[in-house]
Amino acid sequence: MSAPKDAAASASSSSSAPKDGAAPSASLSSKDAKAAAKAAKAAKRAAAKGLAVGERQHPPKNEAGTTAGQQAAAAGGQATHQGRGPKESSSAAGAASASSSAPASSGAAAATPSQTLASLASTNASLLQPTQTAAAGPSSSTGTLSSHDLITTVHPPSTSHSTRSTLLTTSLTRSLHPSILQLQQHLASHTLLGSSARAIATLAALRDFIADYKTPRGAVLNRDLVGKLGAQIGGITAARPLGTSAGNAVRYLKYEIGVVPADMGEDEAKNHLISRIDHFVRDRIVLASRVISSHISSKLRSHGDVVVTFARSSVVERCLLDAWQVEGKRFEVICVSGETFDEGPRMAEALLSKGIPTSCVPLTALGSVMPRASLVLLGTASLLADGALYSRAGTATVAMVANRRKVPVIVCCETYKFSERVRLEGVGGNERADGHDDDLEDGSSTPSNLTKLNLVYDLTPAKYITAVASEVGLSGPESVAILLRDYKSILFGS
After folding, report:
1. CATH number of the domain at 158-288, please?
2. Which three-class secondary structure state does DSSP give residue 390?
3. 337-375 pLDDT tens trace
4. What's the pLDDT tens digit per position in 61-81?
5. Which CATH number fits domain 299-437+450-492: 3.40.50.2300, 3.40.50.970, 3.40.50.10470, 3.30.70.2740?
6. Which of 247, 322, 330, 397 could form a disulfide with 293 if both were Cys (CB 3.0 to 4.6 A apart)?
């Protein structure tokens, strides 16, 4: 350290010699003076970094192989840079140099590289250990979600965390209506399946709650009832998320409660709300499925069609039964069964009981039966604004195979299942069903940290869908956004 100081001192004294009136032979030319000044500055910087003159500093690397400059850039400029311009600090070497010479926020002296890394680690641990913190949340540098992050957003099955008796005990402490408690048990045990069935059951339970509701003294019905209704809906979502169908039904009910006149009597208001619930179920679900059935029947020939279905959709089942019994169409049905809830065999059993020739195949045999198909009918849990289909897991596979074989794919969906949302992927916010693989339950060699991931839904892009059949008519999947725009007040009551 003394050699650089001596060099700096000698350069400083020699540059000031002409001002002190020293002999001309001892003075330096202007070029030599500039060179000496640069050497002095370089010596001072090297001394501050603990390096010899001319020695280059190598940025320290952490376990992940990233330099301090790259970490500082990923931190979004948490450390204050000085000395270099913004152009130099944008590079990795300049950022490393600036971070090593950055002062503390309190105005202390410049820190060493090790002190700077320690400060960064204390303020943002993800900089030095990105692989350990990636599983806890989205990456700080890219802002994207890893596969583990997406899986953590999946709603787990209720029975995996608590038994139904525990759910019942918890619900009783929340003063839930008995009909809500009964609905909870069906949802948690997955004995109530299908988006239409869940929507009808949800409205029926809320209908019973409204019938037993009493307005407190001094309160207004349309204001107090909405708050009380929120607690009941919270009890339902504790068992299973509402989904688009039940969510839109609840949205419609809240709108009807909000427009009830304040001067309307309690009994009259309750009867009005109950009638609105009955009208919603009749018009938007029951009659809508009949209209869809007539649209599908017009696409079936009198004889010889082979229709492929997946899982069990109440609308698709109604379309096939009406075409066979009412319209007299003669066709064959192939029910494809997925891994979730074994709905395919139930669909086949229901059709066989009505005399419709039906066979059931697993999803793995789809490629062998699709060449025979003339039409694919699919149900849905939700039809998104961009035309994508959010339905039972395995639907996307059926639609893609049919598209490859040039088989038309028609989605049967009532308009109350239309969603204003758009999904970029089908994992985030999905639900996880209880698997039925006994090997993972009883296998002694199964790792303890192995978890089954049996998703309930998947996402089918709109390009694999030929048409959408709703009570509005047959249209392309791109019509969803138009219908939501033009018929929003009719569809959702707002």
Report:
1. 1.20.120
2. strand
3. 998 888 999 999 999 999 999 999 999 999 999 999 999
4. 444 444 444 444 444 444 334
5. 3.40.50.10470
6. 322
